[in-house]
Amino acid sequence: MRWIALTIALLTAAPLAAQDRTRIVAVNHPLAYFAKRLAGDAAEVVYPVPEGRDPSFWRPGIADIAAIQQADLIVLNGAGFADWVKKASLPRSRIVDTSRGFAGEFIATDTVTHSHGADGAHSHTGTASYTWMDFSLAERQAEALSISLKRMLPEADVDPVLDALRNDLQALHDRATEIAARLEGQTLIASHPRYQYFARAYGLDIRSVSWDAGAAPDPAQIDELTGLVQDTGATIFLWEAAPPEDARTAVTETGLRDVIFPPLAVPGPSGDFVADMNAALDRLAALSG
Amino acid sequence: MSILYLAFAYLRFHWIRSLVLVLVAALILAVPMVSHTLLRGSQEALTNRAEATPLLLGRRGSQIDMVMNALYFADERATPITMAATEEIWDSGLAIPVPLHTAFETNGARIVGTTLDYFDYRALEVADGRQIAVLGEAVLGAAVAQRLGLGPGDTVVSAPQNLFDLDGVYPLELKITGILAPTGTPDDEAVFTDIKTAWVIAGIGHGHDDVVSVDASDENVAAAASLLQFNRITPDNIDSFHFHGDPDDYPVSSIVVSPYDDRSATILRGRYLDPENPLQMVVPSEVIGDLVARIFRIKTLLDAVTVIVGAAALAAVALAVFLSYRLRAPEMRTAFKIGAGRGTILRLLGAETALILSASAVLAALCVILVQSRGDRLVAYLLSL
Lengths: 289, 385
Fold this sequence. Notes:
The structure holds two protein chains of two kinds. Chain A is globular, with a radius of gyration of 21 Å. Chain A is built from nine helices and ten strands. Chain A has two domains: 2-166, Rossmann fold; 183-287, Nitrogenase molybdenum iron protein domain (Rossmann fold, 3-Layer(aba) Sandwich). By secondary structure, chain A is of the alpha/beta class. Chain A has a four-stranded parallel beta sheet with strand order 2-1-3-4, with helices on one face. Chain A has a four-stranded parallel beta sheet with strand order 8-7-9-10, with helices on both faces. A two-stranded antiparallel sheet of chain A has the order 5-6. In chain A, helix 8 links the parallel strand 9 and strand 10. Chain B is of the alpha+beta class. Chain B folds into two domains: 2-45 and 293-384, no CATH class; 55-282, no CATH class. Chain B has helices spanning 2-13, 15-51, 63-72, 83-92, 117-121, 142-148, 195-201, 262-271, 284-327, 329-337, 342-373, 375-384, and strands at residues 55-59, 81-82, 95-106, 109-114, 126-129, 137-140, 155-157, 173-180, 190-194, 205-206, 220-223, 242-243, 251-252, 254-259, 279-282. In chain B, a hairpin with a 2-residue loop joins strand 3 and strand 4. The radius of gyration of chain B is 30 Å and the shape is elongated. Classes of the chains: A alpha/beta, B alpha+beta.
């Protein structure tokens, strides 16, 4: 029937007209990594965020959005990650929101209530967005992505790769569980609030300050940290990115042992999410005794 | 040749009378043909558009109103449903839903808030400029752009929904980023924007200056009543725009549903058969098929009326011609006396009549050609009324 042909055209013709090879855009590194592994050579996977920019807060320009609109598949993290998608026009039929299936498990962050004149008060509830730091949720994100990929790339043999990826993520989950067990009773402080899902999944007490990644904290921030250490008895400090040497010195002078534990929203040293996350867990394990 | 010359000279001398006769005869010839052309065009436009839209989901009520609003952007206001209905279709994995928000207008054109899938689905292409990319942008249908004389870089302002609703919908300035290629469908008469922009017009999303703390705790910020809300979205203020409430509750006029196959279509239709369900799913081609059948039953009656009226008009014209010949009896007698035979006089009168009828036929044909050449646009305009 004519409309079935139109549906098929909707799913395939428009994006394919723009480029020959299937193109997938992912809003963060973990999803780009999952897409690369699952699609293999059948698709080109693009991580559009410029180097050195935080994908959580990156604002694409009009040209960037126009390029993303042309992608065959746009992989979103959901949970409020990459907030720009709420203000951009994207083709819903080519979007996969990988965390939609577990929206009920999102972690709410601070709520701010305000009012506009006589309109009455209303609230803005934030959502922690680094969902993949719970590796079981990361597995579910990979599964959600695989469903779209199987529909879009029927020629790609996605299932065996998905099984291997699941195994890798399950191994990360087991490893994190084991390390967390050794850290039981200890409080950790993170340089940025990125570890909510990691803390919940593995039963860790992780508090946060809000320091810019890779920047040295100012004296006021060090004072805030010192107060937090005194209040919580924290023993370990997590850096989300490699800090300047004097920043490390300042942190260790508060009595904390520190470790670089990047959530890998941006590509790590090897570009392999599983390998880089394993390396990060190695560093954390070294501190856990 | 001399007969034709004399006939033409006579008609030219009595040009007012000749002109009236030509116009009347042309109208008698043209009206049935023009109405037939428009009706056939409307039937094709209605049917083609409906057949290209497999299923439509909306609030239970008048099916014709729902289809006319969603497919032809007619004035019938659809009682909105919510985005939850769109999400249900996505979650079913049976079809692609394309939500439409058609509550607002600008400069007499419907503002259609939708997703980019609509452009793929209707095969709409941007002929000039670029596609919408962020909140506050719009692309214009070809006919609207031509009528308003607007192009990329210009702006349009959404019309307030209710003049007295001072606390409700505020006009929002939309930046035009592109003009669509003409399609000869109601899409030519619409202004397209992202559905999120339509929700900003509806007041569900807004942007404003930094909120100032007054008598507030860290978690409760009370803004002054004079807080400035933005009525245009720019790169400088877009970050301040935000939406309130659960996205599943945001309003949608109706949803174009494109099932993956016949089985999916059947399953989906079955889900909305319950009369207690506030939503209804219709097959536009069936609704429009019924409508067209009714129109053509009425057309049969109109055809009969047209024949009777046409015959009466022709009789009136014949009478007018006959009476004019009676008035010209002295003139004909003079012609006879100066040597013109009866045959010559009859040929002269015949030539005058032939010239008038020829001119009428040419004029009627021009009218029909004009209507036919702009038929798609005319039909699209008429359907959007």
